Amino acid sequence: MELFVINVKGLSETLLHKQCNENMNEVIEKLFDEVLSLEQPNTIQDSEVEENAIQLWNWAVTKNIGSNINKQQKAKVRHVACRLLYLCESESPSENAIRKQILMSSKTGRTWLDCKNFKLADDFLSLAVKSLETLYCRLTSHGDCVADINIMKGDVEKDLLRVLSYQAESAVAQEKHQEAVSCIQRCKEMLLRLPKETGYLSLICYNFGVDTYNQHKHEESSFWLSQSYDIGKINPKYSPGPEMQAKVLRLLATVYLELDCQKYQDKALHAVNLANKETFHPAGLFLKIRILLRSGASDEVVKTGLTELLDSEDPLDVCLSTAKMLMAEDRETLSFDFLKRMYQHFESSPDLGTVLLLYIELLLQKGKELLGKQKIEDAITGHYTGKQLSPHTLTSLHLLLWDRASKNFEAKNYSEALQWYSYSLSFYKAGQLDQNLAKLQRNRASCFLNLQQLDKAKEAILDAAKCDPNSIFTHFSLFKIAVLEKNVEKAAEAVREIGVLAEVPVTSEDGLHVTENAAANLLSLAAQIALENEQLETAMKALENLCEHSQDAEQVFTALRCLVGLVLSTMENDNEEKSCRRDASLDVLLSYLKMALKNVSQLKQVPGQQTDQYSEEANWFRRIAWNTALQCESSPVRMRDFFVLSYQLSRFCVPDKGVLMGQKTCLLMAAATCLEINRMFPQSEQQTEVLTQALEHIQISWEVWRTLKASGDCCKDPTETLLLLYEFEARAKLNDPKLESVLESVLELDNIETKVLETIAALAMEPPAHFPALCKKALRIALSLHKQDPHADLSRCSNCVHSLIQLSLPSGVCEVEPHVLEEVWGYYEEALSIIAASEDFPELEILWLLTRAWNTGILLYSLAQYTEAEKWCGLGMSFLRHLGSLQESYQTQMSGLYSEVLDRLDRAKKTFIIEDQQLF
């Protein structure tokens, strides 16, 4: 116990002296737990603890005023203070001490009750009752010798009544009906001595009735409401008043009505009649009629109630609700009769139109269209002859008429729909401009269109345009008319207007904002209408505008797919004679695919966007781009653009092996077409740009290729060879210094083919490229590989030798150097060995070799290099024996010349006279 006291004192001091709310809840919780852990009963004889209890109580009151603590915290601090006070209770407490206990326990119980902690509330409320009874006994024992003893006893009884009402409230909340009844019964017995508490107790019972009614406990509710009314009658002077009594009775009647109207019919009627006697209220008369209807009373009885309602000058809305209720309870005759009487009763009222509106609504609801139309026509006549409808009523009537028209339109009863819209139009004055009128005219135009009355439709929509020229719906109606008239220009103009208006906020016909994509939805519908009418060009314009203005990604992609499909179908119908149209279609298709690429890219950037959606769209469009590229053989530029687009779209696809292979091929083909474009237009200003693009495609293709190689077996794939060939050609045309490194990469390839080297050699010398050293290097390696092949192609070997000789032979005086002559001599030896091994070596090729060797000798002779000259002329003579049909003629000619050359060489050695002699 000592530890408990120490802890309580310490925590109390901490809480009482806290300057801020930091950790205040933690201290309150510890203090509360400490008190809860104490076993009962216990007493503490410690004045400091009692003082702490008082201070804690006052602290809670102070903090509560400033709203520094919440309801739960306040309840816990009060709980602690009250428990500590009772723990310090002496064996014979003073009256003042008991009064403190009563105050603290009753308020603590009330606070826990407000916190919905009914168990703790009951504990403290019981303590309060016990302390009150103790105090009352103490006061009674004094007799009449103490002054004001009766006043003090009255105060105790008043406090006891309050505490008992709290206990009743707790019991009701815990669904302990009998306990609550017992508490209230004790309170009722005290009312003779406490008449001023009559109103309070009556309201408490009313609240119990409301709570149990909301919980659908109608029997308990009827009990508490009856108690409330009966208590209010005990002392009329202190009752809640006739208005409150009537309110109690009306709710009691409603409870009987919902509980079992047939069983409690008399009680319900008795309660509502009493309510109406207490004080008049429109709800009372309405409730009475409701009870009569639900109990199955005759029309005559109900009619009596209706007469009473009209005679009481009840508000119009109550009478209207009554008419609706009559119709809902299948008292159709009574309802219409009551409406007629209302119409007469309120004839001079400005709200007469409201009665007429309900009359029309109920007539139409019950299928009495002819009577309904007659009333509408009467309303139109009255509207222009002094019985003008209020703006609110007129709006409601318009809505009713439009709803009727809309239902007929949906049922394809266009004539009937037009009639209802015409009724609505009749309420508009000539020259009136209104957005609702614009919508009305558009709706009428739609009816006329479906009735094939085109002229009337145009007239209606032009009137709509006057009222609302900036409405997308107006222009959409104009579009429909233009399509039916096959007026392509007007249709295109309407589509453009819808597109322009799509950029500004759109409002619907009732003034409310519609979806931001409303214009796009109309464009989609416009395209559908144009296609149904076989107007392809118009449909495509609508779809193009849709793609430009729609905020819905799925809608845009659907439109793009449709556009692509339309272009492809057009291209299928175009034959070769219409190549211009086909080229134009390809350009249009390219623009659509670019638009698809842009939208796929934007879709990917949307936060939380699923990969599957944009990947699926990208895959569809990349296939279209691929297939179209394959059809552009006659146009390398278009082929390149489609292959590039296919690659760009594939970047948004799931990168599986198939997609990577497609990327690689697209880039290869794009590079190839760039090179082809350069060959076709070698002198164009864009040559450098085109070749640079080719290198870019090649570089990206290398990256894709490395990814593919890392993922599987690609040993038979010629990609590396093609990439190197394309790169070599591009760099050669650009005179790129990195060209030699490309050749080195080619030479590093496994199982390099001689054809590749021969191609490299050709590219090295193809104008504007001029790289003879690289060309010869490639040719020498190619020749070497040919010779290693046991089944070598001698004609290809000969070509290599031919090219090497042509590249190496000196063409002028400055080029004659020993190492050059030595190199060429080796090539000639290769040529002789090839000729010797070949049975049908081309005679013209032999003649070319002979001539080039002879001319070299003559060139050397002219340079006074007689020994070398004799050697090369002799080499030329050695080819004579390999000639066929030409051998005889050339042998005769060359033998003579050769002898002459030798003779001249001898004389030249002596005289150093040089004379040129060329063989042609």
What does this protein look like?
- It contains 41 helices and no strands.
- With 920 residues, it is an all-alpha fold.
- The chain is elongated and about 180 Å long.
- The N and C termini lie far apart (138 Å).
Specify the biggest β-sheet: none
Helix content: over 70%
How much is the average pLDDT? 86
Unreliable stretches, pLDDT < 50, 5 or more residues? 509-513, 913-920
What percentage of the residues does DSSP assign to strands (E)? under 5%
User: C-alpha Rg, in Å?
Assistant: 55 Å
Structural class of the helices, strands and pairings? Answer: mainly alpha
Indicate the overall shape.
Answer: elongated
Q: SSE layout and pairings?
A:
Blueprint: H1 2-16, H2 24-36, H3 47-65, H4 71-87, H5 95-114, H6 118-141, H7 149-173, H8 177-190, H9 198-214, H10 218-234, H11 242-260, H12 265-278, H13 282-294, H14 299-311, H15 316-328, H16 332-345, H17 352-365, H18 369-383, H19 391-410, H20 414-426, H21 435-450, H22 454-467, H23 472-484, H24 488-501, H25 518-532, H26 536-549, H27 553-573, H28 579-604, H29 611-630, H30 636-650, H31 657-680, H32 687-711, H33 719-733, H34 739-747, H35 754-764, H36 772-788, H37 794-808, H38 818-837, H39 843-862, H40 866-878, H41 887-911
